[in-house]
């Protein structure tokens, strides 16, 4: 089924926030195609009436009580930040939704 | 930005049928966040209510807050929804700096509550039933502060500062089915729906429901169909609607804006718009260069929620009397006319009056204070009634002082003013301002004797049986006591003196 | 080389408690060994000398004061895979994107190790974000296989397996998403165990594929692995997928197995995991292992698991899909690398530039596959179908375990390949995990125990033992019995045939 184009790779890279190079577009287009061709085999066996499995031992209703647990201090939270200002994480300007 | 052309509202209604879809996000008032034990208190210092999980640190994992799930189910039950016997969380994948994991843990095709309804009463008493599509659980994002450029605006900002205290706060998203056939009343219906929902959530005690603080947020989807058309038009989604009044204005504005485009033969862009409080208009958000693809898939770090029937029934039993039922009961108990009830509701005074009655006042007294005197006060201060610095027990206390004859109505108003001015409890205000009724008969006798002596001709008339003449003496006594005597008692004492 | 580095964990713990040797001496011996050979092996990304020695001192104080040991492994050194966080120790996951990040918290596994008095020596090398079978995908250079320094020590936990085979540590922690504990164990002649999914907490394990990742013990003997398993296993309220049940009694099972009696045990050979594509020496060692098991009294039969053939394609949809989402958080905003922040670039551009610069080729490739497989319109055909394949594989296991107690296969089709040999061919690399993936998809436990050496290259071959969910004791028993018989037959533990490294 798959026949991944360069454009499709570029679209995926945008969705995944990867600033891929022109060379990578070609490499990935080829490799993704090979990989996806071979993994498409999963379509051969799995029929409609088979339920999906996500976990080995099926668990439900795992909750925590609504009790406050100590977290991090502001200093700890910001310790790994590439940049911080006024107790907040400093990030480059956000191309936002608000006009 | 040039203002968009808009079509006259009457003409909009003549040519189009509006269709609404309302999405309300409610921040729950749980002690902790949806998936971690961080507190949810509003207004804390930035990044002090965070942990590895809500900061999305590598290796961290979510665990679901039981009370948040219970709140979601109670909201669902109150909205007459079905509760899913089995449901899951899903990941909604998209990059945004206020979202620590770059996916939102939400619910997708398996919401915890679905297929409900909410009866909404409009100002004239008309009841509209709004169908509820679903109510699902998710988590809030952090908050960004945009620095540089126009203050606080994202556009033209130099950089942004992020605070993740709000990240992970439990949200319930309540989505209506399309609301059709409302015609010119569509904006009013939108407002009344949000208002009714807010009352319901307040009664459930699941949220602070403060639109000004963002604990209740409404996104309004609006589209127009030409009269007689059967398919919905293209919709826009207006965000940033921060008050009940704005809900109404935003819907109305979008109707007129879209209509102006459509009559010119243009087409509506499916987009997110932002309501501008100052101008009452909406403006376009940034258009995404790529179509939305959230790549939803079941959250593998969490297990399904399968509420046993007993749990659901236990929660159903905790539902308080619904605001609409309560109103019916109150109308009967307090013997109100439809109009009186509506005044009470429109003033936002139902809870306050009820609490005042619970604190001992009579329904009529309590209503009089809140609906007439205090409503005016709130209006002039530009506050909601509930935000006035006076409590139902304080109003009830003033009312009791009147009933006991310790205050006249005029004095009582002064006491209320004193409480509003922050002078303390009603009894303290009475004390400090010296407002108590002069009830000491000996003091009154002295004032009466003085007045009778000053006006001997009037005294003679009274003694001669002309009871009506006593009024002049009452007036004089009230003057010397600075109005702090009970006029009725004064009259009795005068007649006693003159027989 | 100090003798102390040649001892098993059980022996070291015993000597420390008997005051034959101090925990500090044990720690120092291993630190010295690391200093001597790790330039060559490159097993460690970070060595925490200070904290290792202070943890060892604390154990010695307990011993001196006559206090009960914190655990049966008190004072034993361990190498921690750099995918588990440890407060104050840099965690990289083998990636440049986490450069300079020092986590502010401990993983549950880390906490349990520290509470057990285990001496954590440092963090071990790995394929970037655990994606790979060779450690060649580490941003910090490949680890080398002590059996042959030109060859890979397996992956993704190649640092952990190499540290064991190089006698830098008697114990190590790995994570197994598609075989990353068992395959490195197999190619280095060490023991690696993937517990039942949910048996060991994932809290603080940097996620690759959440529904598959599982931490587990790595050691040079089955008993040591069992001792470590009991230390790190058990319910954790911070991991919603953690199983709320006691740790299976694996130490008792290992001791039981070591007595060498497997009579009454029924063992199934997976039909699908033999034949073409298996290196001759691997097949020969496996056949020999089957004979040994029969000799111990086990009944061995062949069992077909027809859907195991679909495990690899299902895995290469599920794991990248989940990874594409799990790795989205590495965005240059809150921690780790940030590139391109020149005030002209937007946050969105800085995210894309940083991720481009910070992730290696394999990670990017898998993010792209996962992004594709989850895209609207493809979800049902890929991720959805793959989840159904998991059901079929689980059913194959269930059916097999109706007739046998455990299943066996070679752990991996070949012995350690040469560094660089498969680097440009992702599909060839993926084949290394062919036999290990079914247990990940079903969430069932499985382990690799050294089977012997391959005739043609003299390199270790692994025997994989697979058991039903929560039935770890069965596989430990079989592995321990086999290990004892093999050691007896070959006149000592296989691991001691590792060539001497030039210090
Ligand atoms: Mg939502
Ligand atoms: Zn938190």
TrEMBL record, chain A:
InterPro entries with a match to the protein in the record: Asp/Glu-ADT_sf_sub_c, GatC
Write the Enzyme Commission number(s) for this entry: 6.3.5.-
Q: Does the keyword Protein biosynthesis apply?
A: yes
Secretion signal: which residues?
none
GO molecular function per UniProt: ATP binding; glutaminyl-tRNA synthase (glutamine-hydrolyzing) activity; transferase activity
Q: Specify one Pfam family.
A: GatC
- One GO biological process term: translation
- What is the purpose of this protein? Allows the formation of correctly charged Asn-tRNA(Asn) or Gln-tRNA(Gln) through the transamidation of misacylated Asp-tRNA(Asn) or Glu-tRNA(Gln) in organisms which lack either or both of asparaginyl-tRNA or glutaminyl-tRNA synthetases. The reaction takes place in the presence of glutamine and ATP through an activated phospho-Asp-tRNA(Asn) or phospho-Glu-tRNA(Gln).
Q: Which family does it belong to?
A: Belongs to the GatC family.
How does this protein assemble? Heterotrimer of A, B and C subunits.
Name of the protein described by the UniProt record: Aspartyl/glutamyl-tRNA(Asn/Gln) amidotransferase subunit C
Which species is listed as the source? Answer: Actinophytocola algeriensis
UniProtKB/TrEMBL annotation, chain B:
Query: Known SMART domains for this protein?
Result: GatB_Yqey
Which UniProt keyword terms apply here?
A: ATP-binding, Ligase, Nucleotide-binding, Protein biosynthesis, Transferase
Q: Which PROSITE patterns match?
A: GATB
What catalytic activity does the UniProt entry give for this protein? Answer: L-glutamyl-tRNA(Gln) + L-glutamine + ATP + H2O = L-glutaminyl-tRNA(Gln) + L-glutamate + ADP + phosphate + H(+); L-aspartyl-tRNA(Asn) + L-glutamine + ATP + H2O = L-asparaginyl-tRNA(Asn) + L-glutamate + ADP + phosphate + 2 H(+)
Enzyme type, top EC level: ligase
Where is each Asn/Gln amidotransferase domain found? 351-498
Q: Please list the coiled coil stretches.
A: none
User: What's an example of a GO molecular-function annotation for this chain?
Assistant: glutaminyl-tRNA synthase (glutamine-hydrolyzing) activity
EC no. given is: 6.3.5.-
Report the SUPFAM superfamilies cross-referenced here. GatB/YqeY motif, Glutamine synthetase/guanido kinase
Any one of the GO BP annotations: translation
Family to which this protein belongs: Belongs to the GatB/GatE family. GatB subfamily.
For this protein, the record's PANTHER family field holds:
GLUTAMYL-TRNA GLN AMIDOTRANSFERASE SUBUNIT B MITOCHONDRIAL AND PROKARYOTIC PET112-RELATED, GLUTAMYL-TRNA(GLN) AMIDOTRANSFERASE SUBUNIT B, MITOCHONDRIAL
Classification via HAMAP family: GatB
Q: What does this protein do?
A: Allows the formation of correctly charged Asn-tRNA(Asn) or Gln-tRNA(Gln) through the transamidation of misacylated Asp-tRNA(Asn) or Glu-tRNA(Gln) in organisms which lack either or both of asparaginyl-tRNA or glutaminyl-tRNA synthetases. The reaction takes place in the presence of glutamine and ATP through an activated phospho-Asp-tRNA(Asn) or phospho-Glu-tRNA(Gln).
How this chain assembles, per its entry, is: Heterotrimer of A, B and C subunits.
Instruction: Kindly provide the name given to this protein in its UniProt entry.
Output: Aspartyl/glutamyl-tRNA(Asn/Gln) amidotransferase subunit B
Q: Which organism is it from?
A: Actinophytocola algeriensis
From the broadest rank down, the organism's phylogenetic lineage runs:
Bacteria, Bacillati, Actinomycetota, Actinomycetes, Pseudonocardiales
From TrEMBL, chain C:
Annotated GO biological process: translation
| Residue span of region Disordered | 134-156
Per UniProt, which keywords does this protein have? Answer: ATP-binding, Ligase, Nucleotide-binding, Protein biosynthesis, Transferase
Please verify whether the record's keywords include RNA-binding: no
| Reaction it catalyzes | L-glutamyl-tRNA(Gln) + L-glutamine + ATP + H2O = L-glutaminyl-tRNA(Gln) + L-glutamate + ADP + phosphate + H(+)
* Single GO term (MF): glutaminyl-tRNA synthase (glutamine-hydrolyzing) activity
Q: Which Gene3D superfamilies match?
A: Amidase signature (AS) domain
What InterPro entries does the record point to?
A: Amidase, Amidase_CS, Amidase_dom, AS_sf, GatA
Any Pfam family: Amidase
Quaternary assembly: Heterotrimer of A, B and C subunits.
**What does the similarity note say?**
Belongs to the amidase family. GatA subfamily.
* Function, in words: Allows the formation of correctly charged Gln-tRNA(Gln) through the transamidation of misacylated Glu-tRNA(Gln) in organisms which lack glutaminyl-tRNA synthetase. The reaction takes place in the presence of glutamine and ATP through an activated gamma-phospho-Glu-tRNA(Gln).
Name of the protein in its database record: Glutamyl-tRNA(Gln) amidotransferase subunit A
**Gene giving rise to this polypeptide:** gatA
């Amino acid at each position: 089924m798959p026949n991944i184009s360069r454009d499709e790779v570029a679209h995926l890279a945008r969705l995944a926030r990867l600033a891929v190079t022109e060379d990578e577009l070609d490499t990935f287009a080829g490799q993704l195609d090979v990989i996806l061709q071979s993994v498409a085999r999963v379509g051969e066996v799995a029929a409609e009436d088979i339920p999906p499995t996500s976990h080995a031992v099926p668990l439900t209703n795992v909750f925590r009580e609504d009790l406050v647990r100590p977290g991090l201090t502001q200093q700890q939270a910001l310790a790994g930040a590439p940049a911080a200002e006024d107790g907040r994480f400093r990030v480059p300007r956000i191309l936002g939704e608000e006009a | 930005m040039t203002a968009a052309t808009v079509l006259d509202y009457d003409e909009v209604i003549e040519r189009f049928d509006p269709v609404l879809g309302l999405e309300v996000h409610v921040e729950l008032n749980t002690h902790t966040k949806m998936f971690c034990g961080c507190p949810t208190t509003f207004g804390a210092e930035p990044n002090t209510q965070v942990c590895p999980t809500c900061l999305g640190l590598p290796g961290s994992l979510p665990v679901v807050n039981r009370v948040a799930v219970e709140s979601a189910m109670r909201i669902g039950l109150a909205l007459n929804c079905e509760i899913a016997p089995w449901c899951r969380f899903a990941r909604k994948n998209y990059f945004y700096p206020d979202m620590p994991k770059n996916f939102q843990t939400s619910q997708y095709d398996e919401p915890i509550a679905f297929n409900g309804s909410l009866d909404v009463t409009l100002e004239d008493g008309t009841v509209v039933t709004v169908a509820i599509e679903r109510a699902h659980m998710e988590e809030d994002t952090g908050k960004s502060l945009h620095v540089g450029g126009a203050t606080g605006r994202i556009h033209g900002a130099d950089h942004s500062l992020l605070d993740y205290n709000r990240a992970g706060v439990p949200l319930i998203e309540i989505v209506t089915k399309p609301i059709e056939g409302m015609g010119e009343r569509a904006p009013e219906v939108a407002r009344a729906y949000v208002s009714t929902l807010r009352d319901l959530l307040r009664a459930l005690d699941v949220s602070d429901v403060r639109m000004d603080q963002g604990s209740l947020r409404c996104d309004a989807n609006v589209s127009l169909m030409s009269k007689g058309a059967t398919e919905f038009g293209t919709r826009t989604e207006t965000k940033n609607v921060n008050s009940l009044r704005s809900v109404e204005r935003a819907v109305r504005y979008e109707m007129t804006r879209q209509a102006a485009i459509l009559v010119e033969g243009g087409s509506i862009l499916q987009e997110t718009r932002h309501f501008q409080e100052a101008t009452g208009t909406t403006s376009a958000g940034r258009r995404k260069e790529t179509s939305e693809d959230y790549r939803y898939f079941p959250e593998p770090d969490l297990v399904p929620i399968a509420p046993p029937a007993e749990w659901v029934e236990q929660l159903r039993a905790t539902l308080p009397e619904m605001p609409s039922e309560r109103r019916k009961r109150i109308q009967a108990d307090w013997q109100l006319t439809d109009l009186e009830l509506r005044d009470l509701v429109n003033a936002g005074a139902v809870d306050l009056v009820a609490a005042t009655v619970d604190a001992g006042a009579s329904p009529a007294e309590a209503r009089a204070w809140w609906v007439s005197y205090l409503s005016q006060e709130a209006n002039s201060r530009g506050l909601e009634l509930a935000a006035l610095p006076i409590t139902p027990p304080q109003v009830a206390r003033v009312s009791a002082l009147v009933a006991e004859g310790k205050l006249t109505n005029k004095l009582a108003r002064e006491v209320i003013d004193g409480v509003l001015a922050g002078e303390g409890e009603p009894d303290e205000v009475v004390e400090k301002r010296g407002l108590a009724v002069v009830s000491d008969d000996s003091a009154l006798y002295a004032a009466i004797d003085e007045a009778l002596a000053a006006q001997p001709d009037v005294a003679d008339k009274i003694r001669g049986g002309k009871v009506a003449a006593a009024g002049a003496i009452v007036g004089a006594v009230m003057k010397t006591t600075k109005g702090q005597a009970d006029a009725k008692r004064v009259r009795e004492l005068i007649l006693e003196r003159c027989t | 080389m100090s003798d102390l580095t040649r001892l098993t964990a059980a022996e070291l713990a015993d000597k420390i408690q008997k005051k034959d040797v101090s925990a500090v001496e044990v720690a120092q011996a291993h630190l010295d060994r690391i200093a001597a050979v790790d330039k060559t092996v490159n097993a460690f990304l970070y060595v925490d000398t200070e904290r290792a020695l202070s943890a060892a001192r604390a154990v010695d104080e307990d011993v001196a004061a006559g206090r009960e040991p914190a655990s049966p492994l008190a004072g034993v050194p361990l190498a921690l895979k750099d995918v588990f966080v440890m407060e104050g120790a840099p965690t990289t996951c083998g990636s440049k994107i986490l450069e300079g990040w020092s986590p502010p918290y401990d993983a549950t596994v880390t906490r349990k190790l520290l509470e057990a008095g285990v001496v954590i020596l440092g963090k071990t090398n790995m394929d970037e974000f655990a994606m790979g079978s060779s450690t060649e995908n580490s941003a910090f250079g490949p680890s080398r296989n002590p059996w042959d320094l030109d060859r890979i020590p397996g992956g993704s936990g190649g640092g952990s397996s190499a540290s064991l085979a190089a006698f830098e540590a008697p114990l190590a922690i790995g994570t197994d998403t598609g075989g990353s504990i068992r395959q490195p164990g197999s190619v280095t002649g060490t023991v690696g165990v993937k517990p039942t999914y949910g048996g060991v907490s994932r809290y603080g394990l940097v996620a690759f594929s959440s529904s598959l990742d599982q931490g587990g013990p790595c050691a040079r003997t089955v008993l040591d692995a069992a001792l470590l398993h009991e230390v790190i296993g058990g319910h954790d309220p911070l991991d919603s997928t953690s199983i709320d049940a006691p740790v299976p009694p694996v130490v008792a099972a290992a001791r039981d197995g070591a007595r060498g009696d497997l009579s009454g045990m029924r063992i199934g050979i997976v039909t699908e995991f033999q034949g073409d594509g298996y290196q001759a020496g691997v097949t020969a060692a496996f056949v020999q292992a089957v004979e040994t098991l029969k000799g111990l009294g086990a009944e061995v039969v062949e069992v077909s698991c027809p859907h195991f053939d679909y495990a690899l394609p299902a895995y290469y949809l599920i794991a990248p899909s989940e990874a594409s989402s799990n790795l989205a958080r590495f965005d240059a905003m809150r921690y780790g690398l940030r590139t391109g922040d020149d005030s002209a670039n937007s946050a969105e551009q800085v995210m894309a530039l940083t991720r481009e610069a910070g992730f290696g080729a394999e990670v990017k490739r898998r993010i792209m596959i996962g992004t594709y497989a989850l895209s609207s319109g493809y979800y049902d055909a890929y991720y959805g179908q793959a989840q159904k394949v998991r059901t079929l594989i689980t059913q194959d296991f269930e059916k097999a375990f109706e007739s046998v107690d455990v299943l066996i296969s070679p752990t991996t089709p070949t012995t350690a390949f040469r560094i660089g040999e498969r680097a440009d061919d992702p599909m060839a690399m993926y084949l290394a995990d062919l036999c290990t993936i079914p247990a990940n998809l079903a969430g069932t436990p499985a382990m690799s125990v050294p089977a012997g050496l391959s005739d043609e290259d003299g390199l270790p071959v692994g025997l994989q033992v697979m058991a039903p969910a929560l039935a770890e004791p069965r596989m430990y028993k079989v592995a321990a019995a086999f290990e004892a018989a093999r050691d007896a037959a070959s006149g000592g533990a296989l691991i001691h045939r590792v060539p001497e490294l030039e210090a």
